[in-house]
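Exercise 7 asks you to align residues with tokens for two separate proteins.
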Amino acid sequence: MSRVWERTRGVSPVIGVVILVGIVAILAATIGVFALGFSEQQPTQAPQVAIVADYSERTTGNGEYLNLSFSSGETVYKDTLSVVMADVKRSDGSDVTLDADPIQTQASTRITSGTRITIHQDHFTGAESEHLDLSDATLRLVWNPADEPESETYVIYRWPDPSQRN
């Protein structure tokens, strides 16, 4: 009986080690696929910027205007930013459209802290003879990374803040 007992004891540890090595290899391969596969698919992070809006309701020669001041945050290139405005009107109530992107016409190549953009009547088609009315207007500052065509666009600033809208 001792011979049978010795053979059985010798086979069990070998089978256990083979199974354990197989499980470890499968787990390592699975973790490697997830770790390496998902790191390439992560979307580009939008830049973090702090912008202060100064809206003037007073009627100047150009009507109402909006100043956007970049107060802090990451450096952004103007080629990656665009202004989208909606519900902009003339003082008689008719719609006007944004003709020239104020960021492209006013900002330097690199937008950093201290950059200031003014949005006024001259940026809109159809507002030449009337004062500009921004009281119901909305603005979105959209970031689109130019060097990565497959990446998504992000709205990095909204005016007015949707939570403070009447």
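Second protein for Exercise 7:
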Amino acid sequence: MVLRKMTLIALTLMLTIGLAACGGGGNGSGSGNNQAGGQSGTDNSQGTNETPGGATITVLNEGAVGVGVGVLNDLLEKKKQALIADEAMNPRVVEEDFSYTPGEPLMAGVFPYFYQSIMLEKMEAQNITVKMEDWGWGEQLIQKQTAGFLAKNIPDIIVGETQMPGFAQQGLLEPFPDDMAQEIRENIAPAAWKPMEYDGKIYGFASQPGVSSLFWNKKLVKEAGLDPEKAPATWDELLENVQKVTEAGKGKYYGGGVYAGPNAGGYLRYGTLLVINGGGFADDQGQPVFNSEANVETVQFLKELNAAHPAGLMANTNEGTYFDAFKKEQIAYLIDGPWRAIESSQIGIDYGMSQIPLSSDGKAGNITIGAAFHSVPKDAKNKEAAFAYIRAMYSDEIQQLIADTGVRSPVLKSIAETDEYQAVHPEMYQHYLAMAGNVQGLPTFAKEDSKIWQMFGDAVTKSLMTNGDIKSILDDAQKKAEAITK
């Protein structure tokens, strides 16, 4: 039973973190079965904005809960039978596994099935038909969504990660109704909506967003003479700890810290340190703020952490290499998303987990990671029905289901803040706490977004890997970026 439970947890992990970090892949197919811009087959002609009843809404698949393409009611039985027939699953899913009692541990692998079953029940109660579409993920998804906006042929609900705040700023999304926005602000953790707030309006919601926490290998920390149960509370303490672990490791293992490669995986992780220290990537107009005093201080801290790594690891362009080092017990400390908890447990690492330490003048903050935001486009034909779907995403039933997986924390305060949840899922409660306060998403720059990001990433890498003056390096990156964005 223990082996079966652990294997099932691993299966849940694979299904639930499909959107993790920087560009996980849709619902697993990655095929983008429909094309945007007049070729998608999206039919928004049914229903009206006056009443959700009788409407058919089109919803883009979210990888973590994707069940296929077509009418949701037809997809669920197919999904169930596919899970039962999948011989690659170990242990095999059987009919008896499709039994779930709220408040009890959820059988892994069937999470998408139960998630969509609850959504279907809630939509059918309002006489709303749901049609799922798959436009892929990452760049493929962004390109199709951009074409769909231009052609005014877009699903009723779109989903995405880093591109979604930019769509809101461009006026392409419908703001949430005032009563719905108020309900969300009062009852939902900020990470689920704060990155999608613009000019006082909310434009998107994620039912199970991720934010980063600090993880550490208790065995390596203990070998360095440190208390393995104590989390460093400040940057100074973290730096002291990683230095002690590196010294104790004598080249066999290192202190570690945070991945800082010149790519989205790096920006999502060390960007949290920028936010904590009062810095960031861009202002609210999409203009770069690379060379702020706070950013210079943070990059200096990153440079000091870099010394507690094997040469070249921290800024490696392949983020997988960095996280493999933690899994192989080659580094002790790591800043990453919530999936690191269950994965560490699965591979036998005795780990600690806490909120990320603060700089001397810093305040708690974070950047969403692996967050699938759902939004209603301005050109959606069934807006009221679409908002009814999003409301269901933060219902008690859906949020309890998420809580019972133990892989991500629920965003509904009435579930996450109970004594029962904190006792059963202490690690994920730490994650919930990290979802409060100043939580942001990665910004979109005013022009040539990808090129500007690369300028910043290259500047940080140069700061870490050379003896150049950090302020001068960031000044140069700022000047080059402004020449493009202004």
